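Let us practice reading a record.
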Amino acid sequence: MYTSKKSVQILIALMKEHNIRHCVLSSGTRNVPFVYSVENDPFFTCYSVVDERSAAFFALGLAQELNQPVAISCTSSTATTNYLSAITEAFYQKVPLLVLTGDRDPYLLGQMEDQQIKQFGMYQDVIKKQVNLPTVRNDDDFWYCERLINEALLALDHHGKGPVHINIPLISHEKSFSIPALPPVRAIQRHYPTRNDSGCLAKVRELEGGKRILIICGQRWHASAEEAAAISAFAGKFNCVVATDHLSNLHIPSAMHLYVLAETIALPIFDEMLPDVVITLGGNFLSYGLKAKFRIRNVKHWSIQEDGSIVDVFKHLTDIFEGTPAEFFDCFVRHARPETRSDGSYFNLWKKQSDELSLPDMPHSAYSVIRAFADKLPERALLHLSILNSTRICNYFNIPPGVKVYCNLGAYGIDGCLSTFLGQSVVSELPAFLIIGDLSFFYDMNSIRIGHLKNNIRILLINNGGGCEFYMNTGKAKSPNLDRHTAARHDTHARGWIESLGFKYISARNAEEYLARLDQLMVKESDRPVVLEVFTDIQTDSDVIQAAFKVMQVTQVPVTAKSKLKSMLKEMLGEEGVRRIRQLKGIKEVPDFYADV
């Protein structure tokens, strides 16, 4: 029988998955759930050493002679301090000790609780990894606890061996040992493609035989020809499709820009297209839709990480491949059986669905402004997308493959988009374009007076007088005071500041003016930087983006009756949404389908 404490159950189950068998146990109260559970499980070999200082050194000797990790477990408070000498020795000798300290309710730290000291962080200078386990009350807690323990156990021998610390807070004394079996857990494994280890070779065999593979390529701002060639060779061998967005900066035949489809695809259709394995590489990717859908579908996830770190974006990570994407794909191509060939069926399945998706025309708004901009972009250029709508909307539309795309997607903050773009433009010989909203622009406008700027700068400033994102997520109906603080409504324009710094300034307040002046922004040569400020309406921008999104969802539903389609659209948008779409300025630009909903 095992403890009823979920965090301890998960720990023991993962120790078994990672083959950690030897435990040196010191008597106490706060580690009773662990001690009782492992001493009654024949998988473990347990040793009793009352003195914690001696116990830790005893375990050090065991680990050295066995050449494998050994766990030590003690109760809370000063018992934990007695481990420090042995942990220090283990750290400098690179011995894998798994240090397990029982603890009390973390909420009571510093509240005169008996036998409670600050344990987490106490070994920080002589430990490879330290984690503080949560109290497990729900599925998210379970996933987080499982992930933290995997991270700690994998660190025991990652880039050299050494001790790791798992602190285990418990809210109450153990009173129940009635659990007959440990819960199923997900052990994350790490593989090394350049070493041709047995784990990698087994994974090669797993993908053979026509398994459906979805490769998601996140943000990459430098992609080598070697990497592109390795991915292409992999696609020739295995049944895969490479999902990209503009920030992937990857242009190969097996890659497909799937952002719009990923965001709008209905779950029943998505389920028909589920892969057997999803492989991620690069940095963050834009599609919240893919993240949300894969989190509720149990699909194997493999992550390629150059530093071997755990990035469990879908909460289903099973394998980490430490190395570059080129090393990963080259390993799989080299070790695949000679007869292994892709029939292209999975790629064609996604392509068919993508080809059937059409983008609606919309009235003058950020959506239509960026659509026209994307159509005009030159074949070779640098493009920086500031956060949220600039990035989201631009990824609705195709741009030339010779355009290199940047975005501050790592932390996704508003504060430095303009400055980052200017730094990129200074060292680029290409025409350098920026799409930026008004709040982001005015936040960082001081950067325009940097003295090193070149004449290749082209800025599309979309000024709708506030933060459209908050209209989309909250809306005036739910928050009558939205404008005052959250959306930061204003009546400011950029002309005075722009012209005072010697930039060429152009503006447009409607679709006709914008289309007439867009070529002035796209001009290849200019004697000074150019800014085109386009004025739109914040409510219209919000309505149009949401309407376009809904329409793209509806058009995927396999119905032919127009009245049925309109009924579904009306249900999705609501009466107020339909009314606003009808009243949008420039309604003549909206197709008849919307006009007579």
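A brief commentary: Residues 306 and 562 are 51 Å apart (CA to CA).
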